[in-house]
Amino acid sequence: MPSLRTSLLSLAFLAACGDATSADPRDLDSDSPESLPEAIAAGFSITEVADFNSPWAMTFLPDGRMLVTEKAGTLHLVSADGTQRKTVTGTLPVSSAGQGGLLDVVIHPQFAQNRLVYFSYSESRSTGKGVALARGTFTDGTSPSLANVQVIFRATPYVSGDGHFSGRIAFSSDGKLFFTNGDRQKFDPAQDPTATLGKVLRLNDDGTPAAGNPLAARGFHPAVWSYGHRNLLGLAFDASGNLWEQEMGPQGGDEVNLIQPGLNYGWPNASNGSHYDGRDIPDHRAGDGYEAPKVWWNPVISPGGLMVYSGKLWPEWKGDLFIGGLSSQSLVRVDLNGTAAAKGNQWSMNSRIREVEEGPDGSIWLLQDGQSGSQGKLLRLRPAP
Fold first, then answer.
1. What span, in angstroms and rounded, lies between the C-alpha atoms of 336 and 149?
2. Residues with Cβ < 8 Å from 336, sequence gap 6 or more?
3. 164 counts as catalytic
4. Radius of gyration of the chain (CA)
5. How far apart are CA 95 and CA 320, in angstroms?
């Protein structure tokens, strides 16, 4: 385990970085993390807590310990201070090529009673590759494990390729499970009512489609809540119950969306970006039949994880969104005011940020991205003294 090192992050605003024009380069996890900037100016106090091999997601247990996923398929149980870890056995084999791997991890809202842990991952089957959702019962101790692991949902259809699995998970206050399925770089399935690709899904906690989903009567897959999405890499509820989602656009047009039942968010028929080969995509415009993003970026930020902040340590940011930036190598804040959103700060991190979570004390925790097999640091942000 590396020694702890604390440095300060400059508060200077940094514009997002652009990308090359090859096929979806910012989605390919091809950039290695760079070293964190040394103390530049007062702002955030940043502690390097631990190293992981290409980490993807994390979540906190009620006692302050963390579950951290690695792309290649390992799930770690990490002490609250980050200095100790154990491998959690019981996860399922993953297909980790390209953007695939062991993806998101969350705990059930009643975890203290039922000990259920949910995780998403990409897998290869006879019909192709796709994203699956599984759950197991957490057993603590010297050799922690997930028992009685079951796959409770699989995207449809499984197709060729290694991109745009998505796989983010969020629970609503009424216990329903929301799950994102990316378009798998196939474009048209995002508008196909029978496919779950390019959709936000609403499920019961056992993975079955929830009753009352708005599009089932129109012939959609019964799990679909909203559609017309591309690569959905962040999903979170605010304190008022609004569901916020962020996704990578194509060449330009990264989005933050307020997800509302039954709406069509336009992909691939509308986007504020363009195809990587230079072909135009019609921009979102009033009256086009598609729900426009609340915030969008061009140049892009390549959004990673997403969280809604409580305001415990930074009261001025209570209720705002925080997003990890991949190609932009940044931490991004979006100012929320009810159902309205506007761009806030964008801070340089000098490394690709895959995940952002809030700790029990209100600190902000980040996972640096990395290539499969390379290290990415777990960082803790607090106000500078």
1. 37
2. 238, 244, 308, 319, 320, 321
3. yes
4. 19
5. 34
Give dist(CA 361, CA 358) in Å, integer: 8
Q: How far is CA 12 from CA 40, 96, 116, 341, in A?
A: 10, 36, 42, 21
Give CA–CA dist 334/18, Å, rounded: 19
Strand locations in 231-329, DSSP E?
231-237, 243-248, 254-259, 295-297, 303-308, 321-325
Contact in structure between 66 and 55 (CB atoms under 8 Å): no
Of the candidates 165, 42, 193, the one whose C-alpha atom is nearest the C-alpha of residue 99 is: 165
Contact 344, 333 (CB under 8 A): yes
Task: Report the distance separating Cα 195 and Cα 200, nearest Å.
Answer: 11
Tell me which H or E stretch contains 111: helix 111-114
Distances in Å between the Cα of 67 and the Cα atoms of 146, 165, 173, 180, 371 are 12, 21, 22, 20, 20
Per-residue pLDDT of the chain (385 residues; tens, 9 = 90+): 333 344 434 333 233 333 332 344 444 433 334 444 433 333 789 999 999 999 999 999 999 999 999 999 999 999 999 989 999 999 999 999 999 999 999 999 999 999 999 999 999 999 999 999 999 999 999 999 999 999 999 999 999 999 999 999 999 999 999 999 999 999 999 999 999 999 999 999 999 999 999 999 999 999 999 999 999 999 999 999 999 999 999 999 999 999 999 999 999 999 999 999 999 999 999 999 999 999 999 999 999 999 999 999 999 999 999 999 999 999 999 999 999 999 999 998 888 999 999 999 999 999 999 764 568 999 999 998 8
Angle at 270 between CA 265 and CA 275, to 5 degrees: 125
In the chain, what are the domains? 5-383 (2.120.10.30)
Residues 17, 256: Cα–Cα separation, whole Å: 18
Selected catalytic residue, list 164, 221, 229, 284: 164
